Each structure stands twice: as C-alpha cells, then as structure tokens.
Amino acid sequence: METEIKIIQESLNQYKNCQAVLNYYEDEELVQRDGLDFEIIHVTDAEIQFLIGDKIKEAIDLSKYKTFERSNEFFKNYFELKNGVNILRIYFP
Predict the structure, then answer these.
(1) What residues of the chain score a pLDDT lower than 70?
(2) How many angstroms separate the Cα of 46 from the Cα of each of 43, 51, 75?
(3) What is the C-alpha to C-alpha distance for residues 82 and 1, in angstroms, rounded to an integer?
(4) How many C-beta neighbours within 10 Å does residue 36 have?
C-alpha cells in the first residue's frame, strides 16, 4: 500500500466540501454503510482522514487494505480499497 499513497492522495484530494459514502463488504455482502459530510480529505501514510476544520470526522486505516483503485463500474466518483474478500467502496454522490 505504501507505493499507492501518492495515487490515493492525487485521487481523493480533489474532493472538498462534499459528501462521501463508505460501503464495507465482506464476501460481497454489505456489512456497514456510513455517510458523512466533510470539508477536506487528508491522506497520510497510515490513514485517509475526512476532516471538518481540524476535527477528524472519519478515518480509514490503510493497513487493512492491500490495493486502491478507481472504478467506473457503478458511479463516476467511485474508489475501492481491497484486501481479499474485504472491500471498502468509497463514492462521492
């Protein structure tokens, strides 16, 4: 994942003052869905952070995932973090 941090930053830093939907899947079954408003996204070596001001609204632990990719399968602004059967799909409606 370390080599993909720059790609994640370039892909997600463009989203500001909007909403994100986080869909967590295990074995292709939706197990959790979160929606949130945020001002900026900050990507570190360890996390994707959704912030309002200086406060972290949501943080995604990147060590749980092996790959990051953009997908146009479902929505235009759609990204996936994957680790085997565990998938986090992030989209910006």
Answers:
(1) 1-3, 74-75
(2) 8, 15, 26
(3) 10
(4) 13
